Amino acid sequence: MVAFEYRQAQEIQEKFSEHAVRYLFLGKSGAILLGFPDTTQDADLYLDRSPENCRALATALRELGFALTEGQAAEIERGKDFIQLKNGPFDLDLVFAPDGIERFDDAWRRRVEVEGFPVCHLDDIIASKAATNRQKDRESLPRLRSFREWWMRRAK
To answer: Is the whole model's pTM more than 0.85, yes or no?
Structure first.
């Protein structure tokens, strides 16, 4: 398993932009793009669930090199809450209904642009991690909250 790399974010951004896919980096991959000093094994993407976006997403993923099965394509096109892809050039988690975030459009308005990457606001990343209540997320929350304090001071 390869760790999430900046190059992967670039590939996603380029192909998704080409197909007008509305998405946000979420989770640790989003936090890393904001400057959080950590690693993760995959990219987490929060996606707009509209039918047009889901169809464009399936096309973009295939062009990125993901060998989508018919079942996976159908799940993407209907906006299944959570889809894990491990059949492409890197691991990718597609999230249409993240815990702790009510609506994509609200998260979109709060997003942070980092070198052309649309990233969930750190408050949304933290809210999502807190709401999932998984052990690994509970362990990373104190570091994420500490990073948030530094990040907010830096943004002023």
So the answer is: yes
Question: How far apart, in whole angstroms, are the C-alpha atoms of residue 4 and residue 10?
Answer: 11
Q: Residue 74 pLDDT > 70, yes or no? A: yes
**Any residues with CB less than 8 A from the CB of 73 and at least 6 apart, and which?**
58
pLDDT at 104: 98
Comparing CA positions, the residue from 109, 101, 88, 93 lying closest to residue 130 is 101
Residue 38 phi/psi, 5-degree rounding, is: -155, 180
Nearest to 29 by CA among 101, 92, 89: 92
CA distance 29 to 31: 5
Q: Which fold has domain 6-150?
A: Beta Polymerase; domain 2 (3.30.460)
Whole-number pLDDT of residue 150? 95
Domain locations in the chain? Answer: 6-150
Instruction: Report helix, strand or coil for 73.
Output: helix
Residue 21, strand partner residues = none
